[in-house]
């Protein structure tokens, strides 16, 4: 792993956004928040990268949240508060809006801003050590509507209220049951299974995968009928290289070699 507190590593077509402050359980500093949009943009711009995994560098923690040790500094004035919140919001947006699929690989604590970061990913794969918590009530804070909506969309309003109002720690099994975790694997299997699914995504049609992500996003934003975006995607699919290759491969009884990037 890089000695940097946050970095982008690659394994073939898979990118890994690595949080690496083990002494602080990967708590996010201002500089780390500011780096996330740049690293996400680098993954987005590389046509050879198809999936982004967000992970902690060690098994002890995914991310303990924002580094509270910086709060006196970042909340010192209205201007510094605005700049900090803008940096945090930009980091969340960079992950949530990435066109490529994203997986949070969660081991250990996944608290506060770290949990909010995981919520920005499409999937959350975890092992039994994973513990989720969003505790603004311990600090007298309020999360933004966007951040709160991501939690509500996953677990529903009552569970979201319970987590946010009560600062409850959600253990791995409960996280899976309420939809906060997507899959739960044994500790020895988590990395292998996460990479295996990422590799599966890499072998499939990137047009389809990105279309699914966009259309689900439209639904979460309130659409109940086709939107301009969903119509454009469904109307263009039959002219795309992946459909033509997929059809040929099926008829020729071979694996398709998709080219959409």
Could you characterize what this model shows?
It is built from eleven helices and ten strands. It is an alpha/beta fold and 261 residues long. Strands 1-2-3-5-7-10 form a six-stranded mixed sheet. Strands 4-6-8-9 form a four-stranded mixed sheet. The chain is globular and about 60 Å long. The model has no long low-confidence stretch (mean pLDDT 96).
Key phrases:
261 residues, alpha/beta, six-stranded mixed β-sheet, four-stranded mixed β-sheet, 11 helices, 48% helix
Query: N- to C-terminal separation?
Result: 28 Å
* Largest sheet features: 6 strands, mixed
Number of strands: 10
Strand order in the sheet with the most strands: 1-2-3-5-7-10
**Overall body shape:** globular
Number of helices: 11
Computed structural class: alpha/beta
Query: Which spans of ≥5 residues are poorly predicted at pLDDT below 50?
Result: none
Can you give the helix content as a percent range?
Answer: 40-55%
Average of pLDDT: 96
Beta-strand content bin: 15-25%
What's the assembly state of these chains?
A: single chain
- What is the ordering of alpha helices and beta strands? EEHEEHHEEHEEHHEHEHHHH
| C-alpha Rg (nearest Å) | 19 Å
Q: How is the secondary structure organized here?
A:
Blueprint: E1 6-11, E2 14-19, H1 30-45, E3 51-56, E4 61-63, H2 71-74, H3 78-96, E5 102-106, E6 109-111, H4 112-119, E7 123-126, E8 131-133, H5 145-155, H6 157-166, E9 170-171, H7 172-178, E10 183-184, H8 190-203, H9 206-220, H10 228-236, H11 241-251
Parallel strand pairs: 2-3, 3-5, 4-6, 5-7, 6-8, 7-10
Antiparallel strand pairs: 1-2, 8-9
């Amino acid at each position: 792993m890089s000695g940097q507190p946050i970095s982008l590593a690659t394994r073939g077509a898979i990118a890994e956004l690595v949080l690496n402050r083990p002494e602080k359980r990967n708590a996010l500093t201002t500089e780390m928040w500011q780096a996330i949009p740049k690293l996400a943009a680098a993954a987005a711009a590389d046509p050879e990268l198809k999936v982004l995994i967000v992970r902690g560098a060690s098994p002890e923690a995914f991310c303990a949240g924002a580094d509270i040790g910086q709060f006196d500094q970042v909340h010192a004035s209205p201007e510094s508060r605005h700049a900090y919140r803008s940096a945090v919001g930009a980091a969340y947006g960079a992950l949530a809006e990435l066109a490529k699929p994203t997986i949070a690989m969660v081991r250990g604590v996944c608290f506060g801003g770290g949990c909010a970061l995981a919520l920005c990913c499409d999937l959350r794969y975890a092992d039994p050590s994973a513990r989720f918590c969003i505790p603004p009530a311990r600090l007298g804070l309020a999360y933004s509507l966007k951040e709160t909506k991501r939690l509500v969309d996953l677990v529903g309003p009552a569970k979201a209220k319970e987590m946010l109002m009560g600062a409850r720690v959600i253990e791995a099994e409960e996280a899976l049951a309420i939809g906060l975790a997507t899959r739960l694997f044994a500790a020895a299997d988590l990395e292998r299974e996460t990479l295996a699914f990422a590799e599966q995504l890499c072998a499939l049609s990137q047009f389809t995968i990105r279309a699914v992500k966009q259309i689900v996003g439209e639904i979460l934003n309130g659409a109940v009928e086709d939107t301009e975006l969903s119509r454009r995607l469904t109307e263009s699919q039959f002219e795309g290289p992946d459909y033509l290759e997929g059809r040929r491969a099926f008829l020729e009884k071979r694996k398709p070699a998709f080219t959409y990037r």
